[in-house]
């Protein structure tokens, strides 16, 4: 059985403090090329996953840019370790349990409400920030097949630089995806965007041209 979200306003308000504390570890957070958000349909956000900070970062993105109800699929183990997560909009998924299908169908049902943002880390776990490619685990195909209404898909890529500071600066690159909503096409398009973001990040701060070749 999945652990479903049970949003409670007072806990959501209290968790804002936790979000601000965690994200205070960054010197700056920039949202780049924020797309126009369609409030007539639900929004599906796909983001790379490389640290514990990604959850609070997605929550911040939801509040500041998307301005929708926060709904995020989280590993069951994390939900059990941080029980308050269900009160801010998180629900569980366990890839090794029979409840997996239930979690995917529940995720699809959330996409019927245009007030919702459904956040998914398609890698299905935490991986290095330095990967050349972002892989998509199975499951997204069922969510897309089971959804009953049109949705907006937004890609998010988070990249960090420390430079001369003690705290990293985070750039959150965003893109509205308007192509075919099928896992293979989504993964290919996401990785094209991911590579363009990495290239843009490398060009920051005026490095010598020969190191970019």
Structure description:
The chain is of the alpha/beta class. It has one domain: Glycerol-3-phosphate (1)-acyltransferase (3-Layer(aba) Sandwich), CATH 3.40.1130.10. Helices cover 34% and strands 22% of the residues. It contains six helices and seven strands, in the order αββαβαβαβαββα. Strands 1-7-6-2-5-3-4 form a seven-stranded mixed beta sheet, sandwiched between helices. α4 crosses α5. The radius of gyration is 17 Å and the shape is globular. The termini are far apart.
Which structural traits does this protein have?
213 residues, alpha/beta, Glycerol-3-phosphate (1)-acyltransferase, seven-stranded mixed β-sheet, globular
Q: What would a concise description of this structure say?
A:
This protein is an alpha/beta fold. It has helices at residues 9-23, 54-66, 76-81, 100-110, 140-146, 183-202; strands at 28-32, 42-47, 69-75, 90-93, 116-120, 151-161, 169-177. The chain has six helices and seven strands; from the N terminus they run αββαβαβαβαββα.
Radius of gyration: 17 Å
Mean pLDDT: 95
Percentage of residues in DSSP E strands = 15-25%
CATH architecture descriptor: 3-Layer(aba) Sandwich
The number of distinct structural domains comes to 1
Shape: globular
Order of helices and strands: HEEHEHEHEHEEH
CATH class: Alpha Beta
Give a short account of the largest sheet: 7 strands, mixed
| Overall helicity | 25-40%
How many helices? 6
| Count of beta strands | 7
Q: What's the name of the CATH homologous superfamily?
A: Glycerol-3-phosphate (1)-acyltransferase
Backbone structural class = alpha/beta
Runs with pLDDT <50, length 5+? none
CATH fold-level label? Glycerol-3-phosphate (1)-acyltransferase
Strand order, largest beta sheet: 1-7-6-2-5-3-4
């Amino acid at each position: 059985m999945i652990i479903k979200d049970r949003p409670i306003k007072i806990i959501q308000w209290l968790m804002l403090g936790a979000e601000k504390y965690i994200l205070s570890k960054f010197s700056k957070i920039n949202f780049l090329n924020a797309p126009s958000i369609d409030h007539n349909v639900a929004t599906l956000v796909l983001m790379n996953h490389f640290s514990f900070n990604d959850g609070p970062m997605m929550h911040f993105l939801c509040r500041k840019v998307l301005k929708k109800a926060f709904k995020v699929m989280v590993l069951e183990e994390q939900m059990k370790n941080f029980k308050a997560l269900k009160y801010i909009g998180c629900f569980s998924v366990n890839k090794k349990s029979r409840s997996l299908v239930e979690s995917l169908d529940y995720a699809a049902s959330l996409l019927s409400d245009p007030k919702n943002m459904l956040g998914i880390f398609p890698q299905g776990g935490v991986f290095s920030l330095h990967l050349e490619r972002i892989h998509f685990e199975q499951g997204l195909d069922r969510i897309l097949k089971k959804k009953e209404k049109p949705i907006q898909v937004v890609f998010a890529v988070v990249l960090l630089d420390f430079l001369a500071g003690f705290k990293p600066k985070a750039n959150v690159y965003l893109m509205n995806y308007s192509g075919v909503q099928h896992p293979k096409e989504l993964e290919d398009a996401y990785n094209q965007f991911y590579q363009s973001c990495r290239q843009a990040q490398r060009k920051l701060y005026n490095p010598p041209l020969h190191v970019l070749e």
